[in-house]
Amino acid sequence: MKRLAKYIRPYYLYIAFTMIVKLGGAVAELFVPYFMERILREGVVPGQHDRIFVYGGLMLLCAGICLFLNISANRMSAKSSGRITRKIRYDLFEKLVGLSARQMDELTVPSAESRLTSDTYRVNEFLARGQRLGIRAPILLVGGVVMMLTMDARLALVLVALLPVIGLTVWLVTKNSIPLYTKEQSILDGMVRVVQENITGVRVIKALSKTDYERARFERVNDDLARTDSKAGAITSVNNPVASLVLNLGLTAVVVVGAYQVSAGRTQTSVIVAFLQYFVMILNAMLGVTRIFIMASRSQASAMRVADVLELPKDLQPTPDDVSPSPAAPHIEFDNVRFSYTGVGENIQGLSFRLMRGQTLGILGPTGSGKSTIVNLLMRIYDADEGAVRINGRDVRSFGRDELTRMFGAAFQNDFITEGTIADNIRFFRDIGSEAAAKAAEDAQAAEFIAEKQGGMEAPVAARGNNLSGGQKQRLLIARALAGDPEILILDDSSSALDYRTDSLLRRALARDHRRTTTVLIAQRISSIRHADLIIVMDDGMVIGMGSHDELMETCSEYRQIAEIQMGAGEEAEA
To answer: CA–CA separation, 380 vs 404, rounded Å?
Structure first.
């Protein structure tokens, strides 16, 4: 929790006041057995029955004060812990969305989700319950011992002698439980990943009849989580029984010793009765202290996981570049670029090309050949390991994030669609007018199916576009990319679900209405890229062909083979 102290610091005074209120309630509760002892000692004496009403009234007053102050303190603790956790959760979310792709790869999405949800919940639980029990339990524990010492020191020493045994038990349990709770959260990350994959791929799983396999896969990680939680629970469950056993043995000892004390005339029966009440109070307080330590061990593991993300350094920061934009410079330039996702094998090897403003680049290659990696480097989702990527002569590393992203309009193969309307998805929270959105939909060949929808541009769209066909989704995504009038348009295999005619009309609209836009097309169809100014053929991160369509037909056997297969299927006529 120390690593999250900056979030608690603004509420120090508020929390301190909460503690004072809780302290008042605990002190009032401590006096209830004391006044009960006074009633038994003085109220039964003939002629002093009025003392029963006096001390009874004081008992009721203390109970009422205790109730009022405890309720007030509990409400205050809930308010402060909620506000602190809200700020932590907000900063954590802001940090997560600002992480670079490489940092997110290392963290993993399931881990990010569990840190944002279950970990912050455990921090909130400790902050709230810690304020409630953090003062009340120790005050009742220490105050109860003090009150017992003032009544009868000999009897009180019986209890004091037992407290170190309980303290040692709490320390051992806390020491051994923290690593297990940390491990439990890591396993929970894995379970979230399995669930996430199943939800995302539910159609494929059902289509391939792999439901039993996925059920067994979930069962394995679920069993692992259950075993770890059971082991941690077995350790922490020692606290309450040990504390109860020790204190009950102490209670028995007090009754036995007290009986001898009463028989010897060294104490009174009323003191023994009060001692029993304080023993119950101290027992509950000790159990409360152990609960605090258990919550602290769980929340410490969660707080460390949250702090690990919050303390991640900012990645992909802009670096100074004295080069001024030049109209004569290539719009896009890759200069001997090398890149690896893992640092083991190269995903891009020595890539160099130039593209002038308004030109079109086509990229072709098998899955895993490095096509999308080129786009990732161009948009600076990742940084190149060697070489340089330039826009208008400037290294992309010299651009600020907002400055760079405003240049791009992108439609990816596995992009997402939000719940809302068609217009909402095209604008995507940008200041784009209705005319610009409609024009983007027209250029993306989406106007026809939008017109058929009830409500047109205001027609509802389900989450992930589940009420749209594959081709409709892709046209909607392309319209979103075009709506911002980008300098550079990225279409990463985003027309694979379009028929040949629609694909051809899309390319004509781009050539007609977006002449100043430099376009990067990643496709599997020759017809989609054959009219590009430059075509790059990739295989295993290497360039095996580069040039125009006609040049590649003569110089690149792999390109020619793909073209002949596709054209033989009738694509030449549609191109």
So the answer is: 8
